[in-house]
TrEMBL record:
Residues 228-279 form the DUF559 domain. This is DUF559 domain-containing protein. Coiled coil: none annotated. It comes from Paratractidigestivibacter faecalis. It comes from the Bacteria. It holds the Pfam family DUF559.
Length: 323
């Protein structure tokens, strides 16, 4: 029988991205190449099959074995890879689960990129780079921060390459992000000021918040709302309006009613827009306001910290276009 390929790194990420969307009824995984008859597959055929099943391309990223094949990019990985850490997608191909995959990716990506991937895996959206829309909303989370942290911590104790960076990146991650823009803002809010972030962690994302009966009529009889970001103890929340200029009058009125109800419930509501996060002065003012609302006192950013923030802002949010 032909060798089994254990797929990891970026090819594994391609698989999980595609399979999450496919599981919600959108067919993105091509069936071509699944059947080769009764004979065992040659190594290049296994690689082609793996690329097809993972919605990826050759060379595919493989771990666990060293092979000489131009269609396979072999990686040394010393982390635990038991049956529980693998997902079989064919008799010839297995894919690493999210935990080992993230540690593997941490050997190639920096802390911010690892955090962005982890937010996606623990969130309710999936990137769909092959489609017109950049992401698919309302998906089931593939994993949780706790599960990813459990594997990364164990791998770190074993001295596995990439595990230390993965653990550090997961310190920025919160479950429940509903979009790439929320993920970008989550990373910015959590990252240290030294690295350009706001260093205002401690929030939860998209958790249900009960609305008292006396306020439910204003929300169309809804008994719960889901703030994008919520600091429970401080009763401060942040809503991200990424498309503020494209909302219908009805949606704007609904959002305003929601904010009035939240304020009546004793919550401070801050709103973030695409225009705000792309403008250095506006973003700094927002961070200062949020810092104050959370009851914290901070020194003004140093020139070096501001330079780091400008670079991070451009990386995560882009630059405000000039009129």
């Amino acid at each position: 029988m032909a060798e089994r390929l254990v797929i990891g790194h970026q090819t594994a990420l391609d698989f999980w991205r595609a399979s999450r969307v496919a599981s919600e009824g959108q067919h993105v995984l091509d069936d071509v190449g699944r059947l080769y008859g009764g004979r065992d597959l040659r190594l290049k055929e296994c690689a082609a099959l793996a690329a097809n099943l993972c919605n990826s391309s050759t060379p595919v990223d493989a771990v666990a074995e060293r092979r000489r094949c131009s269609d396979i990019c072999d990686h040394v990985f010393s982390g635990p890879l038991t049956k529980a850490h693998l997902h079989d997608i064919d008799q010839y191909v297995s894919v690493c689960q999210a935990g080992p995959m993230l540690v593997q990716l941490a050997t190639q990506l920096d802390q911010v990129d690892i955090a962005l991937v982890a937010y996606e895996l623990c969130g309710t959206y999936g990137l769909t780079l092959w489609a017109e829309d950049t992401f698919q909303p309302d998906l089931t989370a593939l994993t949780s921060r706790a599960e990813l942290m459990g594997y990364a911590t164990s791998a770190k104790a074993l001295g596995v390459r990439g595990a230390t960076k993965a653990v550090s990146a997961l310190g920025l991650v919160v479950d429940g992000s509903a979009s790439p823009r929320e993920t970008d803002l989550g990373v910015f809010l959590s990252l240290s000021r030294r690295l350009g972030g706001a260093e205002l962690g401690g929030f939860v994302m998209n958790e249900d918040l009960s609305v008292p009966k006396r306020h439910q009529d204003a929300l169309g009889a809804k008994s719960e709302v889901r703030p994008d970001f919520l600091w429970k103890d401080a009763k401060v929340l942040v809503e991200y309006d990424s498309n503020a200029h494209h909302l219908t009058p009805q949606k704007k009125e609904s959002d305003e009613a929601r904010r009035r109800v939240l304020e009546a419930m004793g919550y401070t509501v801050l709103v973030v827009t695409n225009e705000l996060v792309k403008d250095a002065a506006k973003l700094n003012a927002f961070v200062d306001d949020l810092t104050c609302r959370l009851g914290l006192r901070r020194r003004a950013l140093s020139k070096w910290q501001q330079k780091s923030r400008d670079a991070l802002r451009e990386r995560l949010f882009g630059v405000q276009s000039q009129p």
